[in-house]
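Researcher: I'd like a structural prediction for the single chain below. Treat it as a standalone chain; there are no partners to consider.
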Amino acid sequence: MRFLLDECMPVYIRTLLRERGHEVFDPREMGMRGADDESLLEIAARERQIIVTRDLDFNLISLKRLRPAGVILVRYPETLSPRTVTRLFEAFINTGGLERALGNIVVLTPSRARFRPF
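Model: Treating it as a single chain, here is the predicted structure.
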């Protein structure tokens, strides 16, 4: 699967996804730190990537026009360490969450995942 990892996400998630054989585009590695949401959505739509973000302000309104493969909105308390967030994301992966994210907006919290179609 292909992912676009928003720069607000822990780099450990990038490593986890790559270790599982997934392709991950990370703006921090591509000289695109601070890129606007519209640009990232265009990339994700063109490359059929699932966007992984925790940014509630991410421009999800443009999803009607620019269709990425899916969106995973990760919601967790600021007090959780990046490694703990990564362990929670790994649990989501282990329960088949990535496959179910295709064509959906997923809101992932420490206690559950909610799936909504675009």
